[in-house]
Amino acid sequence: MARMPATERRVALGQAALRVIARDGIHAATTRAIVAEAGMPLASFHYAVSSREELLRDVVDLVVAGEGAAAFNSLALEAPDLRTAVRAVLGSYLDLVRADPGREQAMFELTQHALRSPALADLPAAQYAQYRHLAHQLVDAVGERYSVSWDLEPDDLAGFVIALSDGATLSWLATRDDDAAERLLDLATDAIVAHAIPINRAISKRQENP
Predict the structure, then answer these.
(1) H helical segments located in the chain
(2) Strand-pair partners of 198
(3) Residues near 174 by beta carbon (within 8 Å), at least 6 away in sequence
(4) pLDDT tens per residue, the chain (210 residues)?
(5) Which 8-state DSSP code applies to residue 27?
(6) Domains plus CATH for the chain?
(7) DSSP letter (8 states) at residue 50
């Protein structure tokens, strides 16, 4: 394999680890299996990353970054109204799940593995902190574009969005029922949009209740 900087090698190893977990499960993702998947010699692993546990953290970063890119790409399509925009964001996530189910199974499996592994005990909380941060960014972007604020605290709204998307993901992975998933996302969209307040009305409420 051609020589590459350690940063690039680390990214390639993270992508390889994700492929192994998605295809064969978390317990198959040994250091040897990951470097074999990446087409690298074993020595390359420790040149780029200090441990398997550290690389598994990179896998979370990699997946969340991909989910964020898909969601913001859907917002770039300039939906005509708030509901359409929220539905497009949720739909972009479901599209990722359907396109690569193993990827999402890998994330759920990684979370469960980390909950039972002392060396990764902090990973589930860190993983969901990334999800919350992404959800914050998305609801802020949607609110700014469609001139709404929200009647929930930001953390609560972000947690609500994550709970809905997790539920939809697990449901689809279990049933592979596309029609049911689409209906579920319609309901999730309505539940989120119900907490939106047009900016002018929000300002009026604050003026009435200083």
Answers:
(1) 6-24, 31-38, 42-48, 52-75, 82-99, 101-115, 123-145, 154-175, 178-193, 199-208
(2) 148
(3) none
(4) 456 777 899 999 999 999 999 999 999 999 999 999 999 998 888 888 989 999 999 999 999 999 999 999 998 888 999 999 999 999 999 999 999 999 999 999 999 999 999 999 999 999 999 999 999 999 999 999 999 999 999 999 999 999 999 999 999 999 999 999 999 999 999 999 999 999 875 444 544 555
(5) G
(6) 1-50 (1.10.10), 51-208 (1.10.357.10)
(7) S
